[in-house]
Amino acid sequence: MMSLSKLTRWAAAAACALAIAAPAQAEKVYRLKMAETWPTNFPVFGDAPRNMAAMAEKMSNGRLKITIDSKNKHKAPLGVFDMVRAGQYDMGHSASYYWKGKVPATLYFTTMPFGMTAPEQYAWFYHGGGMELMEKVYSKYNLLSFPGGNTGNQMGGWFQKEITSLEDLKGLKMRIPGFAGEVLAKLGASPTNIPAGELYTALERRTIDALEWVGPSLDLRMGFHKIAPYYYTGWHEPATELQFMINKRAWDRLPADLQEILRVAMRTAAYDMYIHSYHESAKNLEIIEKDYPNVKIRSFPEDVMAALRTANDELLTEKAKEDPLAKEILESQANYLKTVRRWTDISDKAYLNSIAQ
Amino acid sequence: MMSLSKLTRWAAAAACALAIAAPAQAEKVYRLKMAETWPTNFPVFGDAPRNMAAMAEKMSNGRLKITIDSKNKHKAPLGVFDMVRAGQYDMGHSASYYWKGKVPATLYFTTMPFGMTAPEQYAWFYHGGGMELMEKVYSKYNLLSFPGGNTGNQMGGWFQKEITSLEDLKGLKMRIPGFAGEVLAKLGASPTNIPAGELYTALERRTIDALEWVGPSLDLRMGFHKIAPYYYTGWHEPATELQFMINKRAWDRLPADLQEILRVAMRTAAYDMYIHSYHESAKNLEIIEKDYPNVKIRSFPEDVMAALRTANDELLTEKAKEDPLAKEILESQANYLKTVRRWTDISDKAYLNSIAQ
């Protein structure tokens, strides 16, 4: 049996050991590795995860450290879904519509032709059931998905020739990937995909007749305004929302305060990118119009827009028939758009149209 | 001289005491008291500071606790500036333009007639020099000021009679406080201010001919749609941004991680309120139009809008002459608006106009 004095000393030592252990526990550093789809130093898009990681590290007093590998490092820009799912990376920064080949219903969480604008879509995500539907799609793959930053309305693209009628779309060779390419193909265009580094030369040498990229925020540095005279307003990506994704096990390992720090940092970084994009587009558009006054900004004629819309709606009807989950998401979006667009029409749209005079 | 064994024991005890002190220090709870301008349970506006406080408390694991007193408690809805400045409260949630009687340059950090939309104005705050100008105005008063949530475009108001010409503004008795009231007064209207609780009766009994409140998000519960047939689209508050303010000494007392938690929580809560307002306006407008199909939504005629704009610009020219700081802010806003509106025109505006057909 231990003597009382020994017991006292032992208890004091044990208490002391516990006290020493406590701060070490409190200061445990959690490290997350993130893969982004973008190349190193990609502006605006690449700024969003870095803004997020900086906020998270500072708010957590260094307890949450997120390192970001660009595609130059991991070499798999379109492998982010698989790498995060497998736990090779804890997090990803990408865009949901890139995964439609693997999981068709992921298409609907980025932006849709003739769909919602950025504030309308954020309202759908956060108040109209969008987050719940995204969780329904991603939870099967052991992933959490969150809005990751909005580009705002993307431009319709750079064209070598003016589009005056539906006839001009026939045989048009255009770099336009994804669902919007399917819509254009229905009207006789030939959508192609070409690596970013070859786009300028392809457009200059007329290997392609047109291309879409993002908008002035990112188009300026690509130099397309130097070689294509027509810049069309947008219809196909009215509010492109990038994506933060997290492996569910990596998320579950975080204590509750760090989960909240991560959630809020992602949410803020997403909104911040929307505002950053808005600023960069405004600033760069001014540069383009000042330095290249011959660039003509055009909108597609009414009959072209109407045909694009019809083709779009037909494709969506097919997709809804193929997949009950797609049907559920598309109906949620269509219903919400109807309600929210009425408000946009009598608020921002009425305001912008009235003061233009 | 202390024996070696005594010294060892003393050192061990001292180390142990330090170790025990450390977690206590790390877990120090910082309590901030906030006064809001709004009454208890005021929707949307009042949700913003509560969303902020909940995020801050959760992210800090309980180390940052913010309690909020509504105007029902502190009885001084327009005393928030003075109370936070004096340190009676650490923080406030209000709107910058309420302080124009004390500090004229505070007028420009909420919204301006014919001014920027919400994303344009956030871009000005965060990328166009707005935050720096706001700091310049508020730092003299020992205060920090941050965006505190946006209502989106506010409606022009509820009218008993249709406005078909400038003549109809002459003698019009309208509840419209602040700078917009000054603009209307130049055109012969009689702006008045009436407490919120008396507005419904005043409009019903024709004590006033018209009133503006916010938009469908908050107008629905006021019931104005039951007693006034005309609902006009907005011109005078295109992007009303509320305000978080903090006493500088209270801010300086916080450790760096809690300052960042507070900054990010305020930033997110502000954006979140913009999206929340958007949703509530859309939802409530649908209810108004469904239940009261006789409500007529109108925009002011072109000549009325042009006259409002001229009166507005004349008043701003006067204000710029009186105060060099006002001049600096107004020039910054006008220059930024010119650049950013061009982008809005070819992005969201072109998109919204094109797909309406």
Notes on the protein architecture:
The structure is a homodimer of 357-residue chains. With 357 residues, the first copy, chain A, is α/β, with parallel strands linked by helices. The first copy, chain A, has helices at 4-26, 47-59, 71-74, 80-86, 118-127, 130-138, 178-186, 199-204, 216-222, 248-253, 256-291, 302-322, 324-354; strands spanning 30-36, 64-69, 91-94, 143-150, 157-159, 173-175, 190-192, 210-211, 230-232, 241-247, 296-298. In chain A, strand 6, helix 7 (178-186) and strand 7 (190-192) form a beta-alpha-beta unit. Chains A and B meet through helix 1, helix 2, helix 5, helix 11 and helix 12 of A and helix 1, helix 2, helix 5, helix 11 and helix 12 of B.
**CATH architecture of the largest domain in chain A, please?**
3-Layer(aba) Sandwich
Assembly state here?
A: homodimer
Per CATH, the superfamily of the largest domain in chain A is Bacterial extracellular solute-binding protein, family 7
**Helix count from the secondary structure assignment of chain A:** 13
In what order do the strands lie side by side in the largest sheet of chain A? 7-6-8-5-9-11
Q: What integer is the average pLDDT of chain A?
A: 93
Strand content of chain A: 5-15%
Span of the ends, CA to CA of chain A? 95 Å
Largest protein-protein interface:
A-B, 79 and 79 residues
Rg of chain A: 25 Å
CATH class of the largest domain in chain A: Alpha Beta
GO cellular component, one term (chains A, B): tripartite ATP-independent periplasmic transporter complex
Protein name (chains A, B): ABC transporter substrate-binding protein
GO biological process, one term (chains A, B): transmembrane transport
GO molecular function, one term (chains A, B): metal ion binding
